[in-house]
Fold this sequence. Notes:
The complex is a heterodimer of chains A (about 750) and B (about 180).
Chain A: H1 3-7, H2 13-30, H3 36-44, E1 48-49, E2 57-59, E3 64-66, E4 73-75, E5 78-79, E6 84-88, E7 94-95, H4 97-110, E8 114-117, E9 123-128, H5 133-141, E10 155-160, H6 175-185, E11 198-203, E12 218-227, E13 230-239, E14 251-258, H7 262-276, H8 287-294, H9 296-309, H10 315-320, H11 346-353, E15 354-356, E16 362-367, E17 373-375, H12 376-390, E18 394-396, E19 402-408, H13 412-421, E20 436-437, H14 451-464, H15 471-474, E21 478-481, E22 495-504, E23 507-516, H16 521-524, E24 529-535, H17 539-553, H18 560-576, H19 618-638, H20 642-664, H21 672-684, H22 697-707, H23 715-745
Parallel strand pairs in A: 10-11, 11-12, 20-21, 21-22
Antiparallel strand pairs in A: 1-6, 2-3, 4-5, 6-9, 7-18, 8-9, 8-17, 12-13, 13-14, 15-16, 16-19, 18-19, 22-23, 23-24
Chain B: E1 6-11, H1 23-33, E2 41-47, E3 55-60, E4 63-68, E5 75-80, H2 88-107, E6 122-126, H3 136-154, E7 159-162, E8 171-177
Amino acid sequence: MTxxxxxxxxxxxxxxxxxxxxxxxxxxxxxxxxxxxxFAETRLRRGAYGQRYDNGQRHDGFTTRKLPYSPLTKGPxxxxxxxxxxxxxxxxxxxxxxxxxxxxxxxxEYSDAICHVTTRQDIQLHFVHIDDTPDIFRxxxxxxxxxxxxxxxxxxxxxxxxxxGVCHTEVFDVTPYAKALAFYLLGHPDTQDFGRKFKIAFxxxxxxxxxxxxxxxxxxxxxxxxxxxxxxxxxxLYVGGGLGAVPHQAxxxxxxxxxxxxxxxxxxxxxxxxxxxxxxxxxxxxLKFLVQKLGIDEFRRLVLEERRTMPEDPSWRRFFxxxxxxxxxxxxxxxxxxxxxxxxxxxAWAATNVYHQKQPGYATVTxxxxxxxxxxxxxxxxxxLTRRYAGENARTTIEQNIVLRWVPHNRxxxxxRDLKAIGLGDCGxxxxxxxxxxxxxxxxxxxxxxxxxxxxxxxxxxxxxxxxLDPSVRNLRIKISGCFNSCGQHHVADIGFYGNSRNVGSYTxxxxxxxxGGQWARNGGSYALAIGSVPSKAIPDLVDxxxxxxxxxxxxxxxxQAWCARIGKKALxxxxxxxxVVPPHDQRPDFYSDWGDVREFTIGDMGTGECAGEVVxxxxxxxxxxEAEAFEAQLLLDGGQYxxxxxxxxxxxLTAARALVQIENPDxxxxxxxxxxxxxxxxxxxxxxxxxYAHGQFSNYLFARHEAADARYTADTARKTVxxxxxxxxxxxxxxxxxxxxxxTSP
Amino acid sequence: xxxHKIGVKFFVKEATTVAGDAFVPVFHxxxxxxxxxxxxxxxxxxxxxxxxxPGTLLIAHExxxxxxxxxxxxxxxxxxxxPLAGDFAQRLRLVVAIARDACxxxxxxxxxxxxxxxxxxxxxxxNDRLAAPNTNETLQQHRRDLEAVAAETLGVRAVxxxxxxxxxxxxxxxxxxx
Lengths: 747, 178
């Protein structure tokens, strides 16, 4: 019995097929039949990411040691056996208890018994072996979760405000729209040829921070308009936002996009990005650079033109029609808390972790997770508590927490007691204590300094004095990234940090760039000022100094952001400057290692990021898929399933032919007749798919099989088709090379 | 069906005397000194901030070592990941031996203020819900081997095995002298 056997009836067939295909691609990579670059992007698009030290070397504090993995690689400079990270997409953060139980099981069996909630509502597992991924995918698919396109140059997790549907300030619940767009674009042919990742977020209102629309490639803020006397739902649509080393505020694409235009317009934006976006220079390949280069007006014109002329894709209707059917049902009757007895600590917890929903008598409870981490056992027990108090309704948040929704007020004390019993009753959610951090040097190949180490230290220190903090400081946000790539969203924090380093004598010292006055509200409304770089070990004292000066100097109810703007960069720098001094090594050796790491600091462990993956052409992807299908056909043949083997081999030829046709016509349909027709016209009649000696023999394999669809299937006929499929794929590779050569030599 | 994903945990005698982050430098030192035979030591992961979580882990290709705090009980957990030769009992003995070596190494570490491991209890875990679900059938399938290896490890004639009720849990037994 395998997980595949056990779960075959519980997985959506399309997802099951994709996982089988990936497993076949893994087998082919082990045989050296898939190029490592193509395999790297293939696994990234399944959420399987590299991790620090997977290049086979690590500095142990004294010297850089080789990690002697077996030589097989899963990407350039990335060893197969090296543990990796698996990112699990959770659209709009929505989780039910069954899914939470499976996540707990996977963390225990394949990872380090920790589920990590990310700043984009994903769940990440670390230290995962690539060989385990197909079974992990199957177990997730059986409960409705896919990791497809969680990494790589693709549409990443679609995020949304975790209070959507229960929030007082929202215009309407954006949840079903986020869900519809997430699944419409998942694996869509028009989102497969991006030069870089593409992030989408939805917010129910313009003023709150919960979805950070302004930092996304595409973002929608709910709007309602009266048109012809009718209330029409729609979105203020923003494009081209993004953080990273070069942050961009999103530009308004349209003040009001009616709801039925949302999916087709998103597709048109994807098509323009795929066609005109940068492919060679990954540092300039996000949508924000394309919008900047063209200008928002020209970008808008091109998208609207694309919207008018692109081929029909009626499939969006299927997702859109689900929207009115979406309904979140409370599992329990709403009862007010009134004067019920409250356990010790309850009031402080309720003040920060309980949100009173717009539905009277119900609350959303934030379960504060330190550094976004929750143990497998806690996750399983939290699933129980979700069932007991919130029914099916949990969500992850971009502040790396989990919320339970629809909790009746009268049950809050009981829930608090139960959360405390499993170590999840910390107060301070959404306050200065609730520090957000990306994985940084703990696991990320790009990490420079320990964002989690610093976050843990700050959390510990601030929690100890939480009760005595000035109210104006209590609600500040601290966000930390391990490098300038901004996964910790430091640009939109009141107090943000990103990791860098400085050379002091013969040493390298971990530092953080101090970023002040970012706007978390208004969906990440403005970005912070860079003030200066401070040694990592001096940061906690700097935070005390900054917050102290703010409390002393603020005017009225002036926000931290307004205070920073008023006193100006020069004054802020004067506060920061005393903390920039690095004491000599013999006096403070601790300054020369990072938080939570006893090794002397080095940046020698940084690797090549996989965030964008390799830019792999649609054709290369198509060939890789065709090869995997031919491999599956061989396995089916070996198992005596002749008809299935024949059909899979035929499919492999179609996939390879389509991959070629897509060079000239990206919109070629998946219909076999259309593929064969276009393939014949574009590649056979032109003698590109043509062998000097065999002439049209290889193309005839496809034509003959296409015309003999109702043939009888025997071992011999199936074997012949499988062999022909392999020859056809080889010929397709040659034709591709010939085509490229012809393109290069054409005037 | 059997599994190679065997875990063994020895509990510490006085958990309260050991600071949460005390094991981070120790495990880094093990990597520097290549202290664990037949293991490719990769990295240290610290989850001391997670209540009753996996604690501090030394990640290795063959299996992870953790100063684990699951259910509030600190102990050295060795969790095998890569296959071992032999039948179930032989594999279990090997895992116990690796875990016991790690415990001895920790007991000799001067930075840990004379940490000692209990020799009157042993937790054995099968980290594989497909091959070894937490059922009575799994217990019956492995009972003889579990009892035999646990008894010889604890130096007693017989042990009793206590298994958690929750069918969602990993299969694990706490072996104590009968």
